[in-house]
Design brief:
Elements (H helix, E strand, L loop, with lengths): L1 E2 L3 E6 L2 E10 L3 H18 L4 H17 L1 H12 L3 H19 L7 E4 L7 E8 L2 E6 L6 H12 L3 E6 L4 H12 L7 E3 L4 H10 L2 E5 L2 H14 L3 E4 L4 E5 L5 H13 L9 E7 L3 H13 L19 H11 L3 E6 L13 E6 L16 E7 L2 H9 L3 E2 L1 E5 L3 H8 L6 E4 L15 E2 L2 E2 L5 H7 L1 E8 L6
Parallel strand pairs: 6-7, 6-9, 7-8, 9-10, 11-12, 11-17, 12-15, 14-15, 17-18
Antiparallel strand pairs: 1-2, 2-3, 4-5, 5-21, 10-20, 13-14, 16-19
């Protein structure tokens, strides 16, 4: 995707000559106008009632399922998502809308006795108004959905500003969602940083997923306005492998977490920490597993690792691996996998502790293999980065796993499973530079998109 201040151009990362979309960026005023329309629609959307909101979200889920093949093909073409993953994302998207379709019926508060005298004390959660959502390109249907659905279920209206690289996907999602909702309740705002900043300046609550730098800008701006804000940002995730682990199985899990969708997930594994005697066998097994990963055209159902989203992203991965000992993969000759922006899944070792690969999120199919003396040492290595999203631990011993759980400074810990993978009905988020504000997904999202109010109800003349 390339952009100028006036034009957004969406290209197929597997074939950059294939242009999906070319439109004029609407400018900051368009964000203000979209929020004003959403604000005008919100007072009718909330009192429409639980049944109406539930039916609308259920209708979106059904429409997503009906358009599943078209949506998956669009994700393949616009953001280079391998077909199998694209199909899985669309299925998850439908499931997210169906899950939150039940949320309008959930209790919104509690009833309490007064401390003294007659009356009632009530707490009740109410929507903020207009939710401004800023989403990335790598999950072009799922992330906008797991932000929009709970916001709408709670009675907010939504203005969604997608990443420029996923504009066509967002417009298709809007077509589906708007078909089930009243006018003005859900709006897609195409654009870049200028439109996103204007949305943050106008919305009543903001949810962001993207880079750490952009997320910090968003959180500062929203906090200065005093509005609720959550931001999901980068990851520099570790996989810890103990000597008692099933090495072959661990290598398969970790290879999938490094190479799946070319490592373009905030939950991808970028550091592999081998404890003690696990190092030698894991080095061999993981390098072999990565060399076996199918790389190529994302439209091929067998492909696991497709292209990077842009030439700049490809070059960033190659630069990060430069000068390190390569155990598997590497950039290879340009065009070796097709005309797109490809990098083979890559494993390196002997990275100095201050190397950028151990300090910054590279966002590609690249990981560093690191040795550790014991579990305590592995935990220190895992924690010694600015991020704290997810850690995977591979071991046959439950006692060992439990011993390390509370010492890992990450929001999510996965035992004998890849670092990638999200359960949309549970809270999602990390620590340190990975996340800011409340968690999203599950019931936690409903809490973010609402504010608690306390009511005191006394009989007339009682006070």
């Amino acid at each position: 995707m390339t952009a100028t201040p006036s034009t957004l151009v969406s290209r197929n990362p597997a074939d950059p000559d294939d242009v999906l979309l070319r439109i004029s960026a609407p400018g900051p005023r368009a964000a203000t106008d979209a929020v004003e329309r959403a604000r005008a629609a919100q007072p009718a959307w909330l009192p429409a009632g639980a049944a109406a909101r539930s039916a609308a979200l259920g209708a979106v889920a059904a429409a997503v399922e009906a358009a599943a093949d078209e949506l998956a093909a669009l994700a393949v073409r616009e953001v280079g998502k391998p077909l199998t993953e694209a199909r899985a994302e669309v299925a998850r998207t439908a499931a997210v809308w169906r899950y939150y379709a039940q949320a309008p019926y959930e209790p919104t508060g509690t009833v309490h006795e007064t401390a003294a005298g007659p009356g009632l004390l009530l707490t009740r959660r109410r929507p903020h108004g207009v939710a401004g959502l800023i989403t990335p390109w790598n999950f072009p249907f799922a992330i906008p959905s797991w932000k929009s659905a709970p916001a709408l279920a709670a009675g907010n209206t939504v203005v969604l500003k997608p990443a420029p690289e996923a504009t066509a996907c967002a417009q298709k999602l809007a077509e589906i969602v708007q078909g089930a909702l009243p006018e003005g309740v859900f709006t897609v705002l195409p654009g870049g940083a200028a439109e996103g900043a204007a949305l943050v300046d106008a919305a009543d609550a903001v949810s962001f997923t993207g880079s750490t730098a952009a997320g910090r800008t968003v959180t500062r701006a929203a906090s200065a306005r005093g509005i609720p804000v959550q931001a999901e940002m980068g990851g520099l995730n570790a996989a810890i492998v103990l000597p008692d682990a099933d090495i072959a199985r661990a290598a398969a899990h970790i290879a999938a977490a490094i190479a799946g969708y070319a490592g373009q997930k905030c939950t991808a594994t970028s550091r592999v920490i081998a404890v003690g005697a696990a190092l030698g066998p894991l080095r061999e097994a993981l390098a072999e597993a990565l060399r076996a990963v199918p790389v190529g055209d994302p439209a091929d159902a067998a492909t696991v690792c497709g292209p990077l989203i842009s030439a700049a992203a490809r070059d960033r991965v190659a630069e990060a691996a430069s000068g390190l000992r390569v155990l598997a993969g590497g950039a290879g000759p340009e065009g070796s996998h097709g005309p797109g922006w490809y990098v083979s899944p890559t494993l390196v070792e002997q990275a100095p502790h201050d190397h950028r690969l151990l300090r910054e999120e590279v966002f590609g199919p690249l990981a560093a293999l690191l040795p550790a003396d014991d579990l305590a040492h592995a935990v220190r290595i895992a924690n010694a980065v600015p991020y704290g999203l997810v850690t995977s631990v591979h071991t046959a011993g439950l006692d060992t796993a439990l011993a390390g759980l509370d010492r890992l400074d990450t929001g999510m810990i996965r035992i004998n499973a890849p670092s990638t993978g999200v359960d949309f009905h549970l809270p999602f988020g990390g620590t340190k530079a990975s996340s800011h504000g409340p968690r999203e997904q599950g019931r936690a999202a409903l809490e973010f998109y609402t504010a608690s109010r306390t009511y005191t109800l006394c009989p007339a003349g009682a006070i």
